[in-house]
Amino acid sequence: MEEKKDYRAELFYEPKNGYETMDAEQRSAMEAYCEDYKRFLNDSRTERECVRNAIALAEAQGFVEYVPGMELKTGDKIYYSNRGKALLLAIMGKKPMSEGAVVAAAHVDSPRLDLKQLPLYEDNELAFLKTHYYGGIKKYQWTAIPLELHGTVVTTAGETIDVVIGRDPDEPQFMVSDLLPHLAGDQMAKKLGDAIKAESMNILVGSVPYDDEGKDRVKLAVMSILNSRYGITEEDLISSELYAVPAFDVRDIGLDRSLIGGYGHDDRVCAYAELRALFDLQGAPERTAVCILADKEETGSDGVSGMKSEAFEWFMGKLCRATGSDLDDCFAHSVCISADVTAAFDPNYPDVSEKRNAAKLNYGVGLHKFTGARGKSGTNDAPAELVAYMRRVLNREGVQWQMCELGKVDQGGGGTVAMYMGNRNIDTIDAGVPVISMHAPFEVVAKYDCYMTYRAVLAVYADC
Ligand code: MN
Ligand code: MN
Q1: Ligand 2 centre and the CA of 430: distance in Å?
Q2: Ligand 1 centroid to 340 CA: how many Å?
Q3: From the CA of 253, how far away is ligand 1's center (Å)?
Q4: At residue 408, does pLDDT exceed 70?
Q5: What is the model's pLDDT at position 239?
Q6: Which one of the ligands is nearest to 106 CA?
Q7: Is 142 left (phi over 0), alpha (psi -120 to 50) or beta?
Q8: How far apart (Å, rounded) are the C-alpha atoms in residues 112 and 420?
Q9: What is the mean pLDDT of residues 147-172?
Q10: Span 219-226, mean pLDDT?
């Protein structure tokens, strides 16, 4: 009997729960890492806030802002903010850029409710803000929860005004109303996806009329508050990027505190893993290590701050030229970890996954050879050679990983920035943290998987 057991261990692939393999030292390192991540996530509720906070962390680690024309040498640590909405960081390697860079790409935008450009109106002596949802949301999840307003207003004088309302405990918050069950018979009979209309997702912002005789007195009162606080008028809102985001604090979840609940794990959990991995690299890497925090992933990666933008070529091209290399040679020899979250198997909804290939909480960083939908359309497909490379490096460094897929075949699907990196002639693989309730206002991840994702990015940065 004993012999047969060993034979099985030798031939079968049997992943283990991380808590069965982790020692006390690893566990305390994991806890410390996750406390840092929780702080970052709690303070980073928009892509601009993520970029700003990432720059502050990077500068504390000795990174300096890249200025075109700057001389670059091995070991230099630089960052470049793309319009304050996306961030590129690099540590110059010992080898020339023509031998390739090691790129980790995550995104820092998350689903939310954007304010329309003409948002403010009054109806029935209540003031509201019109919204246009951003990214893939289940609309019913965004009603009757506390919301905060974050973003930026730019005046015609060119002044940029940052807005955060509702984060401090003594500040007001906001909400989108929902029907009481008593009167929701018609609504409840609708399909879940039709029950909440996008144009009814209006944010309640006031109810007190301004002390005068004219029309729209509640709207005027709200506008007067915005004017006294920020010096803006209604027309200034036209050139604003204001978002309503969930007001929940980032908290431990579970009696054993093994999970983290919060808004925007997708994909700030991987963005933070990349940042920390870059910061924790000892000495100059062999090949230049690049960290990307991209915007607009949730809407298809288009536009100047998205991963399809040539801002990436611009930045990498500058690094190449500064060190006498060609960009096309660099891309051809680069490797990219597309660090984005994946769907964790949820025992409450087992039907959407195929258990043997689904990511499990506490089983480590989730690798995807491909994502996409139907017959694998709309995806990068990591070459088997790259998958083998990841196995080799992660196994050697004791980083727990799992190979997974995004739901069972023909159930749906999704994508990441991986294909836009693959299209650039860069060998790319998806790797990230499994999430429960992805894209909900409150998402859940396992601390162990957060830590292993950081360790995975660090292992690849350090190896190459
Ligand atoms: Mn994502
Ligand atoms: Mn997403």
Answers
A1: 13
A2: 5
A3: 21
A4: yes
A5: 98
A6: 1
A7: alpha
A8: 23
A9: 97
A10: 98
